Amino acid sequence: MSKHKSTKIVSAVIVSSVLLSGCGLLGGEKKEQIDPPKTVTYTEDNGTATVVETAASEKNGEEVAEKGVMTELYLVDKNGYVVPQSIDLPKTESVAKQAVEYLVQNGPVTEMLPNGFAAVIPADTAVSVDIKEKVATVNFSKEFKNYKPEDEMKIVQSITWTLTQFDSIDKVKLKMNGHELTEMPVGGMALSKSGLTRDSGINMDTSEVVDITNTRALTVYYLGGEEGSYYYVPVTKRISNEESDNISAVVEELAKGPAYSSNLLSEFVSDVALLDKPVVEDGKVTLNFNESIFNKAEDKIVSKHILNSLVLSLTEQKGIESVAVTVNGKAELVNDKGEKLSEPVTRPENVNTGSF
C-alpha cells in the first residue's frame, strides 16, 4: 500500500498563504500562490485615525493565529465499517499521538464525531507513541483491554490506518503497559511481529472467496451513508492471483458492486467495462470505458460518485497519483456539475470531509 497523499506537520498561520487547486474534481495537481489577505487595523495619533494594512500571516513579526491539522481518523459507522473521517484537530507537535488519542471513546473527539460514528479505543485509555525508522510503537494503558472481542479487528484497523496516513509511518506495533503485544489482549487476534500495515486490508469482504490461498488483497471504495450525507468506505476484497493487473481488477470490482447484504452502495452499473488495457505513465493512469460509465449518456455526464470511487480506489495502488477517463477514446466528458473533465483527477488530501 503506497502513501497516496502527503500529510505533513507544519507550524503555520491561518492565512499565511492561500492555495488554489486545479486539475481535478477531488483536488488539484497544480497550485498557484496568491497574495494573502490583509488584516486592517486602526490606530489613533492625536485624534487622527490611521489605517494600517498588515499581512494576516504576521504582526510585528509574530504569528497571529495558528492553523489546525486536518487529520483522517478511522472511526466506526453505524453499520460497523471502519471509515476515514477528516477532522480539523488542534495544532500540536505530535500529530501521531494526538490522532490516536482522538480514537479513544469519551475522549476529546466526542464533540466532533459525525452523526452515526464512534471511536473505537476503550474509554480512559492513556496513549504514547514512539516513531523510529518509520515504525510507530503505540503504548496503551491497562484500560486498552476493556473492549468486546468482536471489536478487536476494528480496533486494529482503526489504529493502523489512522497512523499510516503519515509519511513518517509505514508500520505500527502495539504495547500495553510497556509490554509488546504479539496478540490482542481479549480475543487473541494475532499481531504481526514485523508490524501492522495497510497490506492486511480494512473492512474485509471474503464473501465470494472459496480458496483464499490463491488470492491477493485489493481495496476499493463504495458509498456508505444516506442520500445527502454519503461518505466513502474502503473495502478490501480478495481477488484471484490469475487477475492480470490490479487496475483492471479495481474497475471490475467497482462494476460488480458491494455485497448485497453490506448496506453499501455503488453508482456503477454491472456492464461498465474497459475497452482497452489501462495505460500508466508518470503516475497517471488513463482508462478508456464503454458508454455505460455515463449516468447521462446523451449529455456525456459521469457522476461525481463514480469518479470519486474510481480515484480513491486506484490511488491506493502503488505509483498511481491521478486518473484520466475517456469514453470510446474521447475525453469529451463532464461531471454532474457540468464541468469539463479535461484534466486528470487526483486524490483529495483529505477523505470524507463532508464537502464532496
TrEMBL record:
Organism this protein belongs to: Robertmurraya beringensis
Record Pfam families: Germane (PF10646)
Matches recorded under InterPro entries: GerMN
Domain GerMN as annotated: residue spans: 96-185, 247-336
Domain of life of the organism encoding this protein: Bacteria
Name recorded for this polypeptide: GerMN domain-containing protein
